[in-house]
Automatic annotation (TrEMBL):
<keyword id="KW-0804">Transcription</keyword>
<keyword id="KW-0805">Transcription regulation</keyword>
<dbReference type="InterPro" id="IPR013324">
    <property type="entry name" value="RNA_pol_sigma_r3/r4-like"/>
</dbReference>
<dbReference type="InterPro" id="IPR013249">
    <property type="entry name" value="RNA_pol_sigma70_r4_t2"/>
</dbReference>
<feature type="domain" description="RNA polymerase sigma-70 region 2">
    <location>
        <begin position="32"/>
        <end position="92"/>
    </location>
</feature>
<dbReference type="GO" id="GO:0016987">
    <property type="term" value="F:sigma factor activity"/>
</dbReference>
<dbReference type="GO" id="GO:0006352">
    <property type="term" value="P:DNA-templated transcription initiation"/>
</dbReference>
<dbReference type="InterPro" id="IPR036388">
    <property type="entry name" value="WH-like_DNA-bd_sf"/>
</dbReference>
<dbReference type="InterPro" id="IPR007627">
    <property type="entry name" value="RNA_pol_sigma70_r2"/>
</dbReference>
<protein>
    <submittedName>
        <fullName>Sigma-70 family RNA polymerase sigma factor</fullName>
    </submittedName>
</protein>
<dbReference type="GO" id="GO:0003677">
    <property type="term" value="F:DNA binding"/>
</dbReference>
<dbReference type="InterPro" id="IPR014284">
    <property type="entry name" value="RNA_pol_sigma-70_dom"/>
</dbReference>
<dbReference type="Pfam" id="PF08281">
    <property type="entry name" value="Sigma70_r4_2"/>
</dbReference>
<dbReference type="InterPro" id="IPR039425">
    <property type="entry name" value="RNA_pol_sigma-70-like"/>
</dbReference>
<feature type="domain" description="RNA polymerase sigma factor 70 region 4 type 2">
    <location>
        <begin position="129"/>
        <end position="180"/>
    </location>
</feature>
<comment type="similarity">
    <text>Belongs to the sigma-70 factor family. ECF subfamily.</text>
</comment>
<dbReference type="Pfam" id="PF04542">
    <property type="entry name" value="Sigma70_r2"/>
</dbReference>
Length: 188
């Protein structure tokens, strides 16, 4: 099924109202666009993934500023490009600074999902199978899944543990759950 501009505008409006399913839809719909754009620019999967996560975190924090007269994908790519330029400048200057300016109020709008396929596996005590699936994820995704579901840390505790902004942790966990759900579905 093709996603129309009206579908996107509708989901953006839902996201502005804090609907978690709208954030997930937007992430799923535009992840490949942003990630592919960055992969061509930086030529590193890890760096492209990191910039993509920051892009969605920043976009979700600033979703209220999105003008529906423009294309949402173009807006995301522009944010992504700016983040990559900032990172390159900092790298060249050997400085480190977080690029995501977030407020606690905006971060709270990205809520947890209802039970997901991995939650169901945990409840059914199929931990061995779940761990096998988790090991198929890249290390940063394995880490946030482990901290959230096995060590039962809060988002704030995870952010402190991995030394990342809270919004980045939320997007990384959202992405990790999506990838894990795809692995579980493929193997079911």
């Amino acid at each position: 099924m093709e996603v129309t501009k009206e579908d996107i505008i509708n989901k953006v409006e839902h996201a502005k109202n804090g609907k978690q399913s709208a954030f997930k839809f937007l992430l799923d719909t535009f992840w490949n666009t942003v990630y592919g754009f960055q992969l061509k620019r930086v030529k590193s999967e890890y760096e492209a993934e990191d910039i993509s996560i920051e892009t969605f975190a920043k976009a979700f924090d600033k979703i209220e500023t999105f003008d529906p007269n423009y294309e949402f994908g173009t807006w995301l790519v522009a944010i992504s490009k700016n983040i990559q330029i900032d990172k390159s400048r900092r790298k060249n200057a050997s400085l480190y600074k977080n690029t995501t300016n977030t407020s606690e109020e905006h971060i709270q709008k990205i809520a947890d999902h209802a039970p997901t396929p991995e939650d169901k596996l945990i409840k059914e005590q199929n931990l061995t199978e779940l761990l096998r699936y988790i090991k198929q994820l890249k290390t940063p995704y394995q880490e946030v899944i482990n901290l959230r579901y096995f060590q039962e840390m809060s988002y704030n505790e995870i952010a402190t543990q991995v030394n990342e902004p809270l919004s980045n942790v939320k997007v990384r966990l959202l992405r990790a759950r999506k990838l894990l759900a795809e692995i579980i579905t493929e193997n079911s």
